[in-house]
Design goal:
By secondary structure, the chain is an alpha/beta fold. The chain has helices spanning 24-35, 47-59, 74-88, 111-138, 160-180, 207-214, 225-236, 261-279, and strands spanning 15-19, 39-44, 64-68, 93-96, 143-147, 186-192, 247-250.
Length: 287
């Protein structure tokens, strides 16, 4: 991988922290920012994963470090964020991508599972923000970008802990945007939709289950991590300087209408009618 010659978002030299960067969407986010010339600090509880990532990014010409960081531990968070600021001389962009999924009906859900979900998905975000805020305030391009989820908009059965935690992130984002406005720091959240990852297992589901889920999308295809990363490039850039306190849905229009699959059914029906008409043999066409 090499750094793009034309850096359209003006992020070259900006210091970007990405939590949960060892795999999945977080890894793609880190790789994307590195390609656009940012100085990337990849943080994750899985140290080997982010160290390997950092080595790959450096091999491609980027400035990058990988640091161990457990977002459930304040001392771990403080040490990692301080190390980033010391290494690069500051922090411009914080991307809180780290998160976990907890499933189970309210009746079945253990208190410990609920607490674990909130400790990572909500309090973990708060911890990292608290540690990074002093540095982001000093930046001329301060950005905080928090991972929410489409579940914060429309939850699923059995997702009470996860959906509630992500809804909490949305409200936290709005409050933090208000608090950091005087320093010209923007704070936004993003809501990925159906992007296959190891955590959700969408791509491994039986075809019928996949079809049922895809039928809820206006753009009837699985999303890609790169499509999330592209949104974050915009939110981290000066092009988004007047956008703050928002939740941006990057879900392919999931449930934008009640039954988006009807449009695809209508298209298939129309295409079938055209094919039938084109292949009909009429008396005048017989030699």
């Amino acid at each position: 991988m090499t750094i793009d010659q034309a850096v359209q978002w003006g992020l070259r030299g900006r210091v970007v922290i990405v939590t949960g960067a060892a795999s999945g969407i977080g890894r793609v986010i880190a790789e994307t920012f590195a390609r656009h010339g940012a100085k990337v600090a990849a943080l994750d509880v899985f140290h080997d994963g982010v160290e390997n990532l950092a080595e790959e990014l450096r091999a491609g010409g980027a400035e990058a470090i990988g640091l161990s960081c457990d977002v459930t531990n304040q001392e771990s968070v403080r040490a990692a964020v301080t190390a980033v600021a010391d290494h690069f001389g500051g922090i411009d962009v914080l991307i809180n991508n780290a998160g976990i999924n907890v499933e189970g009906t309210v009746e079945e859900l253990e208190d410990s599972a609920w607490q674990r979900c909130f400790d990572v998905n909500v309090t973990g975000v708060v911890r990292v923000c608290k540690a990074a805020i002093p540095y982001v305030k000093e930046s001329n391009h301060g950005r905080v970008i928090n991972a929410a989820s489409f579940a914060a908009i429309v939850p699923s059965i059995g997702s009470a802990a996860y959906a509630a935690s992500k809804a909490a992130v949305v409200q936290f984002t709005k409050v933090l945007a208000g608090e950091l406005g005087p320093w010209n720091v923007t704070v936004n959240a993003y809501a990925p939709g159906m992007i296959p990852t190891g955590m959700n297992g969408f791509a491994e589901m039986p075809k019928e289950a996949q079809d049922r889920l895809l039928g809820t999308l206006t753009l009837r295809k699985w999303g890609e991590a790169a499509e999330v990363a592209d949104l974050l490039l915009f939110l981290a850039s000066d092009a988004s300087r007047y956008i703050t306190g928002t939740l941006i849905d990057v879900s392919g229009g999931k449930l934008a209408t009640q039954i988006p699959a009807k449009a695809y059914e209508a298209m298939a029906t129309a295409a079938g009618a055209e094919n039938t008409s084109a292949t009909q043999v009429t008396p005048s066409s017989i030699a």
